[in-house]
Specification:
The chain is α/β, with parallel strands linked by helices. It has 19 helices and 13 strands. The protein has four domains: 79 residues, Gyrase A, domain 2 (2-Layer Sandwich), CATH 3.30.1360.70; 182 residues, Rossmann fold (3-Layer(aba) Sandwich); 61 residues; 168 residues, Isoleucyl-tRNA Synthetase, Domain 1 (Orthogonal Bundle).
Amino acid sequence: MNNLFNKLINLLNNEFKKFDLDEAIKLNLSKMPEFDMQINNLVKYNKSDFFSSLQKNIIEIIDSTNYFLPVEKNEIGFLNLVFNHDNLIKDITNKKSDFEINNREKIIFDYGGPNIGKPLHVGHMRTLNIGRSLYNIHSFIGNNVVSDIHLGDWGMPIAQIITYLENQSVDINALDSDQLEIIYPKASEQYKISENFKIRAQEINKLLNDNDAELLKIWESIKNISKKSLEENFSLLNHSFDYWLGESDVNELIPEMIESLYKNKKIIDDSGALISAEDTDPKILITKSDGSYLYITTDLATILYRQNNIGYDKTLYIVDNRQSLHFQQLFDSIKFFEFNNLHHEHISYGTLNDSDGNPFKTRDGGTKPLSELFEETQNYIKNINSDLEKSTIKQLTNSVLTFSDLITNRKTDYKFDLEKFTNVNGKTGIYVQYAQVRAKKLQQSIPQQKNEIENLVLSDIDKQLLSQLFMFGYFLEQSFLLNEPHHLANYLYDISNSFNQFYEHEKLSEIENSIHLSSKLYLVNLFLTTSQNVMFCLGIKPVEKM
RNA sequence: GCUCUCGUAGCUCAAAUGGAUAGAGCAACAGACUUCUAAUCUGUAGGUUAUAGGUUCGAGUCCUAUCGAGAGCGCCA
C-alpha cells in the first residue's frame, strides 16, 4: 500500500527482517500527551547484542521520512515520536489508490443466508452488515470480491411448507409473500407435533432431492414469491449480491460427489447413514439414513460448484458463532476429501439481543422482522427532525442500523438499544454523518484557496486531527487482516469527534489570513475524503445534508 | 457429561495479539449558543480488569484452579 503509514511500516519491517526478527513492528498512537506515536516492541531485544544497531537503524529510517521530529529513545528501549505536521500535511492524501495492495486475491463472501418462506428478521442483520462491510473493505484495497447470498431454498423447511400447502389445499397461484411468512411457523409447528405430517415432509424432502417434477414446480413458485420479497427488503437496506445461488443449485452435483467419496472410501456406512471416514469426535454425518441431504452435504457440493464455476483464492463465511462446529467439520472435510487446499474461514459473530439482553422478539413472541426494526428506527429519526427529506431519512436509518452493529467487535454478543443508537451524541451513525455534513457545508460555502501549503499555521487541534487522519492505513489493515470492521467504525467516530473539535475551535468563515485558511481547508478536504472512504468500507452512504 | 466462548467504570463496549499511567461512549454533575446547522464543544467524577495462584524485565491479554454467564454436541439449517 502506498499511503504514508504503511510505507513507513514496510520500511521498518524490512529492517526487522534484516535482523531475522519474526514479527512485525508496532507503530502506535502514543498514550502520553507529549508524544504522538510510540514503538514498543524493541524493548524485548534490549539485552541482545544487536539491539543498539537495530535501534539505530530504526531511528534512521524514521528520521529520514521527515514526518517526525528527531526520535527520542527512552533508556529501556521505547521509542517516542513526535510528528512534524508541516511536512506530514504536504504528502498525506488518503485517496483510495493509496491503499491498494499488491497481491490481489479473489474472495467469495458467503453471507446473508436467508431462507425462502421466512421474512428477513433481526437475526439476519449482523451477517448482512458484517458481510457487506468486509466485501467493501476488500474491494477498497483492490481484492477481487464476489458475494453470494447462499439462499436457503432447500431441505426440510421447504418440504415442511409444501406439506402444509398440500394438507390445506392452498392454491399456489394465489399465494403471496405475506401468507407464506405466516405459513412457515405453522408448518414448522405441525412438523413437531404431528407424526403423519413429519413422515410426509420427509418424503417430500427426499422427492425434491430426487428432482420430482411436480414438486419442483411448486418449489419454484414459492422461491419466486420469496425472492421478490427479499429483493424489496434489500433495496430498502442497501444490500445487493453478485450471486443469488441457493442450496438447490448444487443439488445435481451431490449424487456424483457422494458416489465418488464412497468409492474412494472417504465416507462409510453407519446404520444406513453415510459418515466421514475421518476419525473425528463427533463423527461427521454426510447424508441421512434415508439418503437425503444435510446442511453439510449441500455446503460441500457448493465448494465444488464454486471452484469449478466461479474460482476463488478464499471463501469467507459470515455466519453466527453457534455454527462453529459445522464449519470446523466442513473445513476438515474439504481437506480430508481432498477437494482443494484453498483458504476457507468462518467469520463468526455473536448474538444480537434486545436492550434487556433477551433474544429479539416481537410483542407476541415471534421473530422480529428486519423491516419492523427499520420502521422503528426511522420513527426515532423523524422525531429528531421532521423536516428531513425522505431519502435522507432512509440513509440515516441505514446508518444507524449499520454503524451500531459494526461498532462492537463482531465476536461478542451485544445489546441492541435503539434509544441509545439513535442518540445524536455518542458513537452513533447520526453523529458521524453530522460531522461529515458539516465538512461538506464548509467546502461549499467557503471559496477554495490555492493550495498554499507552505508556512502553515497549525493549532494543536489541527495537529490532532491530522495525526488521526495519518492512522487510516493502520485501522484499515486491522480491519482486513482480522476481518473485523469495528476497528474502522471506532476510527470513524474518532476522526469525526476530532473534526467537530476542529470545527468548534475556530470559525473558518472569520479567518482572514489566506495561508491559515488554506491549511484549514486542506484539513477539511482531507477529513472529508477519509470519512467518506471509511463510510464506504463500512457500507454507509454519506448524506448530503441533514 | 463432553467441547467451545466469555467475565474490564453504574450501563454499553475498546484496548495494536505480552509493553509505559487500562481507554471511549452513555447516564450523572458543572459550564459554553445574537451559530460556518449547539444534531456540537469544554470540564469533573467514576477501576484491586470475577477470585486465587503461576510464568518474566513487564499480564486485561499466556498457564492452572475456583466461581459465574452463554453456546454447541449425527439423521434441523
